[in-house]
Each structure stands twice: as structure tokens, then as C-alpha cells.
Amino acid sequence: MIQLIYPYSAFFVSILLASSPALAIEKPKLMLARTFQPSVVITDYWVSEKLDGVRARWNGHQLISRGGIALAAPNWFIDGFPDMPLDGELWMARGEYQQTVSIIKKQKPHSGWKKIKFMIFDLPDHQGSFSNRLAVMRNIDEQIQTPYLSIIPQYQLSTNEELMHHLKIITNKGGEGIMLHHKTGIYRSGRSNDLLKLKLFTDAEASVIGYRAGKGQFAGKMGAIKVRSSTGKIFFIGSGFSHKDRERPPAIGSTISFRYQGFTDSGIPRFAVFIRVRNEP
After folding, report:
1. What distance in Å separates the CA atoms of residue 263 and residue 235, rounded to the nearest whole number?
2. Can you list the alpha helix ranges (DSSP code H) found in the chain?
3. What does the pLDDT read at residue 230?
4. 1, 115, 155, 161: least buried by Cβ within 10 Å?
5. So which residues are the catalytic ones?
6. In this predicted model, what pLDDT tens digit does every residue of 105-144 receive, in sequence order?
7. Are 178 and 237 within one domain?
8. CA gap 54, 104 in Å, rounded
9. Is residue 25 part of a domain?
């Protein structure tokens, strides 16, 4: 059993004792992105901003998180949503991921959902190409009379230079990156070359398994978190934390996102920097 360091025990106990929303019937089968490669022919793809939100599936009558949690969206929020499945992001604004999670994780409907929009980017049950699906989504966007549903703008570019220019503009404004949908691609669950992601940095996820005490200005606080990556590598991350993060660090067992620059000879991510806790349902 992993021992909790004394300054943080009460915080972790409160997290562990928190009850969870009811599971949906099953986790949605989502189409997942692969990483963009420079050899990609840009003109074959629709381009959109990668929103810093919470992935969700509208199944025709309720919103379900990627983890299979039925979200307690108020009736007024989903009123007018179409009866077809929609794939999208619950989103507030750039840089507001944590507040979005805080709102949607509550187990009862509440007024905080007024700050949220369901931004759709695909139709999982539609059998046509992405270009055909986009035409249907645009039609939905025009016909549905609700302020809580919209589509993520999709546009076309001609060159890699244009793509990188748009990526830098989005990143400088606090955006996360770019998504590319192949124009002729069919919706399939799992990783697909028909859906690509592009960021200015490489990021990954890891599980928190321990801590290292801080020194100097961080004495009495967390100095670094000990994590295990999806490949089983164990290492410490000590950069990217606010003072508040160091006082109440990510809970043991939680999943965090971090960015890095390549790997050491032993396969450890180099210059790992904490981004955020992935605490969505």
C-alpha cells in the first residue's frame, strides 16, 4: 500500500470518499487520433482547432463521457438536441478545462452548465465520408435552436506552411492544437489515420504513484510527483506546478498530462513538465 505524505492525507481522503455518478450502459466506442506526420497531404483533410474540453457522446437522449459516465446535464441544456448520436467536446473557453470538469462532474443538474457548450465534430452512426458528415453537421447547426449546441468550425488549407502558421496562431491564443479529419474517411472506433492531431509539443499521460518532498522555496510542500507512464516507466516530474498545486498535489492514483522533449537512452521522457490533472469522468 502506498503511504500518503502527511500534509496531503486529508485532501486525498476527501477525494477517495467522494461518490461517483452512475455508469452508463457502456463506454462509447470513439474514433481516436493518430499523430500528424509531415508527409500528410494537407489538401486531403479538413482542419479544426483541438478544443481543450471534455470528450463526450450524445447518444440521442443523454450525454455520456468517454469513460462511460452518464452526465447530469440539465434538461434545458439538452432540449432541442437531435435524436442522432453526436461526437464532440463539452467546452467553455481556451484554458478552462479544469472549470469545465468541475461543472460536468457534479451528480445533479445545476446552473453551471450555462457556461458550457457541446461542440460537435463528428457523427458516429453516419456511414458517409467526413465531408458528407460535415454537411449534415452544418445543417444541424443551422436548424437546431439552442445556445448550447454548435459545431467546431472546419476549414481547408493548401500547404504545410499554412498549417503550421495556423497552429502557431492557435497556440499563441492559448489553444491546444489542431485536428485533421480526412475528407473521405469513415467513422471507425479506435485509432485511425483518418483522424490526426498536431501540437507544438509532445504530450502524454501518466499515473501518480508518489511524491518527493520540496526543498528551499518549496520546503513543506510537494517538490515533485512520482509517476508511471503507460509504458511502465517510472520517473519524477517537478516542473509546471503552481504554488497551489504544490500545496495540494494531484492525488495518488490520478492521471496527469505532461509534455516532454524526446526520451533518454533508458526511455524516460526528457524535460517532463506537468500540464494538468486528467480528472474528467
Report:
1. 12
2. 9-17, 75-78, 97-104, 130-143, 160-172, 243-247
3. 87
4. 1
5. 50
6. 998 999 999 999 999 999 999 999 999 999 999 999 999 8
7. no
8. 9
9. no
Note whether 92 and 182 are same-domain residues.
yes
**Final residue in a domain of this structure, among 178, 198, 218:** 198
Do 93 and 135 reside in the same domain of the chain? yes
Residues 144 and 176 in one domain: yes
Lowest mean pLDDT among 20-24, 96-100, 157-161: 20-24
- Tell me the CATH number at 46: 3.30.470.30
C-alpha cell at 194: 483518418
The answer to whether 152 and 121 have CB atoms below 8 angstroms apart is: yes
- Inform me whether the pLDDT recorded for 8 exceeds 50: no
The number of beta carbons lying within 10 Å of the beta carbon of residue 220 is: 10
Listed residues 163, 198, 233: the one ending a domain: 198
My answer on whether 69 and 167 are in the same domain is yes
The helix (H) or strand (E) run that includes residue 32 is strand 31-35
Residue in 277, 211, 279, 258 with CA at minimum distance from that of residue 18: 279
Number of domains in the chain: 2
Cross-strand partners of 236: 226
Residue 255 makes CB contacts below 8 A (sequence gap 6+) with 205, 206, 207, 208, 277, 278, 279
Q: What is the mean pLDDT of residues 85-94?
A: 96
Is the predicted pLDDT of residue 87 greater than 90, yes or no?
A: yes
Average pLDDT of the segment spanning 79-94: 96
One domain for residues 74 and 178: yes
The domain containing residue 137 runs over which residues?
31-198
Distance of CA 140 to the CA centre of its chain: 24
